[in-house]
């Protein structure tokens, strides 16, 4: 059944998608982050700079306004200093009578010559008589009843700005409307009595205020406006965002705030001039900075878009170039899994995937070599088996013949011959042992005893032998025909060449989970060279393919055969171990595994 | 690969959508705030009015017109002038103004020739100059806006004939050395002589532009020619002086025609002391001077081959006869 894959788990996501997402994350996320950071920083910096600039501009405008207002104040003093005016206020007739009026007019004309921003000057005494070039009363109602007059009296000689005049009984001949002027008054006091002698009224043309403030543009659509201490507009542009600003919005002499007016956010920055008591307010729409921020945001978005465009393409390509060899490797491995060991990974790339592929190739090479080695070893074993079988077919016939000979010998009373023949036949029977490889140790011992008894007949007293094998060890199973070749060697290369009788000891013991069978003789032994050459013959592994050739030159074919069979059957940790000293004899130890049952 | 193409198509179309949206929003925003500003200048364009006897009430109406035009065109104005009746002072003031390189200058020439050189200097520097009220006809100034003084004299003569029933002796009090007053006098004299044979101008006296001097001149005339029935004053102070003279003489019936509409003249018209006064288009002089200067500065009128802008070289700002019937209209509202 196919495994259900939960792609929500990151581990289950294909590497390609992981790579694409990783690349996208490291390209797009930082650019988005950077973009929003820039937007935020620009927003803050712009706001701060706008505020700073606006404060500076407001300050300049306030200074200009203060200049005009202080000029007006100076004019009121100049008027008060004039001796003709003094006389007029004190209600004294001058020496020239009517000419006082004329000279005051001339004097006032001089003032307006110097200050063209003044729309009109009017001097009124406490009787309500007035002198002015530009202004006159609308109705005969005395001017002392006017609010501006009262205001001047209330302020006791201190210059007072009224603002736009309203409902006053005074008009300028040049037709300046109330909205076009800002008026100010000052009462002239008698220095001795502190009584009000009269009032000077000055109208300042709003134009100069408008010029000073209109000249200042805040951004594209922002503007400055001026309000007086009562919150009434002194100057406001033609198309304002807001017509009147509530007084409660202002706190302190300067500051900034923002309010929502007619559905749009307006930013207000204001500063009050302590001298004029007017507040100059910068008004601009937040939308304007919003527009600029939008523009910046637009650039950032475009930037992010191009990063995305580039990032997706490149991450797709990179991920593909990374994941493609991996999937190639996977399909190649699947082929191998299906049994095709000859297929190889073909790519000369130098990165990790290339290394992985080459390592895999190397591993496949090794596996193939092991497989061929195993095949060769198997063949070797079979060949050895076959050889031993062939060696036993002939003795089978021989064994039957020997049986016949034995019976013939007994019939004729030749007991010794019968005995030898019996031993020989026993030897062959066990040697054949119905083709089994593994036989009981007891049988193996019997086989060797038969062999030895035959040899005893030949060598008589020259050969003596002793078995020293515990009965319980005899119940074990061993590989057949391992003892006989060793004993044969001991006789032919040890005892036979010795002068006098020789002895062979055959012992067995269990040691460290192994069965050690020792065949020891007191024959001539071997010279060290010979021993070394024999050991070398035995030590030639049977794992190497080229040993066939060497086998032909080796000495002691029987021993090597035993060694080969032991090692092929049980592995390299088992086999023969030879020790010999020249003139003292040889000991051959068979190292055999303990086998208690055969299956 | 198909997926990639799909993603690209989606991305690009999203971006195009965003672009379109952004463009739409920006243009909507712009159009919302864009104010149609036909004929709008900048506040740093400064136009200067230069006069003589700068404190004179007469100029205040001109200046008001100048200021009103500035308000309408969103530009700044400045008022400068010789403080006294002094040719050299006005030249100096004009030089100072030129040095500041204003956007345009409106000059009322104190005399027909004295300012010509300075005005030409300004025009050569590229500063538009127009003349108002008093002309300097030899200069390179682009236009003159003012009263046709000869016609004003003609109008005064007709009015006087109407008042006196086309017969009788009349006199003139004027400023004989000033061109505009000479022209007024000339218009008056020639009309009386040509059109009204039963009338006679018996005296032309110098009133010095002062009410006191004019009063004395009027008294002199009445003393010499007791049968004078009407006096024409070519300027406001003259009219007031004559009025005061008539008031000082009891039971003397002399028709007075004065000039301009200052407060005291209007009061006398209202009281019936002055029969009629001639109102000049002073506000119009100021207003249209600035309009002309604005057009020159912004090169709104096509130029002639010589590079000389196409503007009316002479604009008559007109004369209105003010009598008791319509005097209320001339008071400030």
From TrEMBL, chain A:
Coiled coil feature spans: none
Domain of life: Bacteria
Lineage: Bacteria, Bacillati, Bacillota, Bacilli, Bacillales
Entry's transmembrane regions: 20-42, 298-319
Location relative to the cell: Cell membrane
GO molecular function: phosphorelay sensor kinase activity
SUPFAM superfamilies (alphabetical): ATPase domain of HSP90 chaperone/DNA topoisomerase II/histidine kinase, HAMP domain-like
Nucleus among keywords: no
Stored InterPro entries: Bact_2-comp_sensor_kinase, dCache_1, HAMP_dom, HATPase_C_sf, HATPase_dom, Sig_transdc_His_kin_internal
Chief localisation class: membrane
GO cellular component terms, semicolon-separated: plasma membrane
Keyword field contains GTP-binding: no
Species in which this protein is naturally found: Parageobacillus caldoxylosilyticus NBRC 107762
Domain HAMP: 320-372
Membrane topology (UniProt): Multi-pass membrane protein
Name of the protein this chain belongs to: Putative two-component histidine kinase
Keyword terms, alphabetized: Cell membrane, Kinase, Membrane, Phosphoprotein, Transferase, Transmembrane, Transmembrane helix
Pfam family, one: His_kinase
């Amino acid at each position: 059944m196919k495994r259900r894959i939960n792609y929500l788990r990151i581990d289950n996501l294909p590497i390609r998608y992981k790579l694409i997402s990783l690349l996208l994350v490291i390209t797009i996320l930082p650019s988005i982050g950077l973009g929003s950071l820039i937007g935020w920083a620009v927003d803050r910096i712009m706001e701060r700079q706008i505020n700073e600039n606006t404060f500076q501009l407001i300050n300049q405008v306030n200074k200009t306004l203060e200049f005009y207002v202080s000029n007006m104040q100076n004019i009121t003093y100049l008027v008060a200093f004039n001796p003709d005016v003094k006389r007029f206020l004190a209600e004294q007739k001058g020496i020239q009578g009517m000419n006082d009026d004329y000279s005051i007019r001339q004097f006032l004309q001089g003032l307006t010559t110097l200050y063209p921003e003044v729309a009109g000057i009017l001097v009124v005494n406490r009787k309500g008589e007035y002198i002015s070039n530009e202004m006159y009363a609308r109705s005969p109602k005395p001017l002392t009843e006017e609010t501006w007059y009262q205001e001047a009296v209330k302020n006791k000689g201190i210059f007072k700005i009224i603002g736009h005049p309203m409902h006053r009984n005074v008009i300028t001949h040049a037709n300046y409307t109330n909205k076009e002027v800002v008026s100010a008054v000052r009462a002239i006091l008698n220095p001795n009595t502190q009584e009000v002698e009269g009032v000077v009224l000055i109208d300042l043309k709003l134009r100069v205020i408008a010029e000073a403030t209109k000249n200042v543009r805040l951004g594209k659509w922002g503007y400055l406006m001026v309000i007086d201490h009562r919150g009434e507009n002194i100057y406001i542009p033609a198309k304002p965002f807001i017509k009147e600003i509530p007084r409660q919005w202002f706190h302190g002499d300067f500051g900034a705030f923002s309010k929502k007016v007619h559905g749009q956010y307006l930013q207000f920055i204001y500063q009050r001039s302590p001298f004029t008591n007017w507040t100059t307010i910068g008004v601009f729409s937040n939308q304007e900075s919003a527009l600029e921020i939008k523009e910046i945001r637009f650039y950032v978005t475009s930037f992010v878009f191009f990063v995305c465009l580039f990032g997706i393409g490149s991450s797709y390509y990179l991920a593909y170039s990374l994941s493609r060899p991996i999937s190639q490797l996977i399909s190649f491995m699947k082929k191998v899994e299906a049994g095709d060991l000859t297929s190889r990974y073909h790519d000369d790339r130098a990165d990790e995937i290339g290394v992985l592929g080459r390592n895999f190739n190397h591993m496949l090479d090794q596996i193939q070599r092991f497989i061929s080695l195993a095949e060769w070893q198997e063949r070797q074993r079979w060949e050895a088996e076959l050889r031993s079988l062939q060696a036993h077919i002939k003795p089978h016939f021989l064994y039957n013949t020997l049986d016949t000979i034995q019976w013939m010998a007994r019939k004729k009373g030749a007991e010794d011959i019968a005995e030898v023949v019996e031993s020989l036949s026993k030897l062959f029977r066990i040697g054949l042992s119905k083709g089994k490889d593994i036989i009981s140790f007891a049988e193996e011992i019997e086989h060797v005893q038969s062999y030895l008894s035959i040899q005893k007949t030949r060598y008589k007293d020259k050969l003596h032998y002793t078995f020293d094998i515990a009965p319980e060890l005899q119940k074990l199973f061993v590989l057949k025909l391992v003892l006989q070749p060793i004993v044969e060697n001991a006789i032919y290369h040890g005892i036979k060449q010795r002068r006098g009788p020789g002895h062979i000891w055959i012992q067995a013991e269990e040691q460290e989970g192994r069965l050690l069978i020792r065949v020891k003789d007191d024959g001539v032994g071997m010279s060290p060279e010979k021993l070394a050459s024999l050991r070398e013959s035995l030590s030639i592994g049977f794992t190497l393919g080229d040993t066939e050739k060497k086998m032909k030159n080796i000495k002691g074919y029987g021993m090597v055969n035993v060694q080969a069979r032991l090692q092929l059957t049980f592995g390299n940790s088992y086999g023969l171990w030879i020790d010999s000293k020249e003139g003292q004899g040889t000991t051959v130890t068979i190292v055999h595994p303990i086998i208690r049952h055969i299956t | 690969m198909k997926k990639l193409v799909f993603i690209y198509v989606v991305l690009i179309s999203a971006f195009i959508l965003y672009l379109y949206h952004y463009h739409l929003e920006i243009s909507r925003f712009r159009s919302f705030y864009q104010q149609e500003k036909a004929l709008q200048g900048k506040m740093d364009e400064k136009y200067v009015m230069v006069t003589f006897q700068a404190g004179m009430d007469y100029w205040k109406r001109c200046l008001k017109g100048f200021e009103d035009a500035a308000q309408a065109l969103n530009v700044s104005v400045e008022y400068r002038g010789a403080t006294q009746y002094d040719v050299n002072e006005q030249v100096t003031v004009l030089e100072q103004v030129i040095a500041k390189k204003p956007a345009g200058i409106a000059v009322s020439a104190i005399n027909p020739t004295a300012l010509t050189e300075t005005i030409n200097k300004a025009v050569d520097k590229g500063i538009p100059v127009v003349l108002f009220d008093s002309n300097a006809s030899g200069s390179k100034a682009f236009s003159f806006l003012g009263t046709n003084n000869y016609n004003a004299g003609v109008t005064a003569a007709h009015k006087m004939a109407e008042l006196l029933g086309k017969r009788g002796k009349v006199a003139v009090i004027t400023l004989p050395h000033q061109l505009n007053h000479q022209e007024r006098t000339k218009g008056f004299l020639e009309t009386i002589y040509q059109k009204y044979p039963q009338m006679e101008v018996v005296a032309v006296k110098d009133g010095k532009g002062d009410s006191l001097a004019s009063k004395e001149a009027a008294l002199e005339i009445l003393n010499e020619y007791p049968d004078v029935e009407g006096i024409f004053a070519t300027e406001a102070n003259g009219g007031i002086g004559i009025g005061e003279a008539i008031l000082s003489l009891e039971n003397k019936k002399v028709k007075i025609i004065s000039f301009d509409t200052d407060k005291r003249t209007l009061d006398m018209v209202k009281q019936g002391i002055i029969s009629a006064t001639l109102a000049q288009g002073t506000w119009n002089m100021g207003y249209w001077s600035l309009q002309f200067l604005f057009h020159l500065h912004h090169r709104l009128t096509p130029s002639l081959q010589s590079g000389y802008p196409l503007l009316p070289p002479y604009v008559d700002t007109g004369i209105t006869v003010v009598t008791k019937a319509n005097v209320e209209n001339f008071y400030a509202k």
